[in-house]
Amino acid sequence: MDDENDRTASLMTPAKLAQVAATAKATVSPSAFLDRMAADVGHQHVSRLAELQKQLEDQSRLAPAESLQAAVDKLAEKLGKMDFAPLEVKGIIANLTGKAKAAGAEFAYRVGKVDKAAQALADLVVPMQKEQATRDAAHERTMVEFDVEYKALDKVIDQGARWLQDMRNQLKTREADASLDAEGRAQLAQDSSRCELLVGRLKSLRAAAAASQQAHGEARATAKRRIEVLQAATRLLNGEVAEWRHGLGALAEAATEGKAEGPRIKQGQELTGSVRARTEALQADCGQLCTHETTLQRQLAAMGEQLRAAG
User: Fold this and answer.
1) CA distance linking residue 280 with residue 74, whole number of Å
2) 62, CA 20 to 30 Å: which among 109, 124, 221, 237?
3) Phi, psi of 62, deg, nearest 5
């Protein structure tokens, strides 16, 4: 079907189609229209939705949550190994035996591990955040067109259903005509068969539209959650982690010399507790984002199957 005919057929009302048919034949027959509509009604929208589905799949792979989850998990792991108790060993004996400095060196080593994990997270989040604006713009363009296409497909389905009902009513009227001859009844049977073909076509289009709508909703939810997670990671790095690095860096330096003081140790414990709490919250956020991405991939795959079936 050429573009102009497809667009015309999809927008004409059942009454208008019947009127056009009546000008061609004395008896209204859906034959010529059903042959074409049953074959590829809504084809343009289905084809474009398939292209947009591929775009969404490609976009969803650009910044997978698994890499972010792994970096946050590593930071949480290193924070969990922080131990302040050895720093509290004091006294002349501890200084003479070198226990204080040994404990300080071990503590500084642990601080370095946390710092390295925090830097790895920053190295991942910073470029992701910088690319977010460009990625969001491309994603939004896809989503806007996606919304237009699946709503247009819904409209075609609705018009097709009303057109089909109109044709069925006409078939019933013709069937009740006692004067209908053998040729007329043969044509009636043929038209009824074509109506059933259209029923199957509309069913496949409904399945494609429903799958598209589900994928559209999940794509929106996933994009929103991704933005929230990146913002949370950025706040963690610029806030608690930055403060932790400053405070614990000074404490580690003092500890290696066996000069860690009680107030500074307490401050370090508080800073570490704060970072751990926010990191664990970010872990949960990343887990939710991973779930969203998995669901989106599954729904996009289902959408692709339905579109291929309707293609």
Assistant:
1) 11
2) 237
3) -70, -35
Taking 50 as the threshold, does the pLDDT of residue 270 lie above it?
yes
Which contacts qualify for 95-103: CB closer than 8 Å, 24 or more apart?
95/258, 100/258, 101/256, 101/257, 101/258, 103/255
Is residue 42 left, alpha or beta, with left meaning phi > 0 and alpha meaning psi from -120 to 50? Answer: left
The full 3-state SS of 243-273, as one line of letters, equals: HHHHHHHHHHHHHHCCCCCHHHHHHHHHHHH
pLDDT higher than 90, residue 23:
no
**The pLDDT of residue 175:** 81
For 243-271, what is the mean pLDDT? 89
For the record, the structure tokens of 137 come out as 């713009």
CA–chain centroid gap for 110, Å, is: 38
Domain extent, residue 184, equals 3-310
Per-residue pLDDT at 280 exceeds 60: yes
Number of structural domains found in the chain? 1
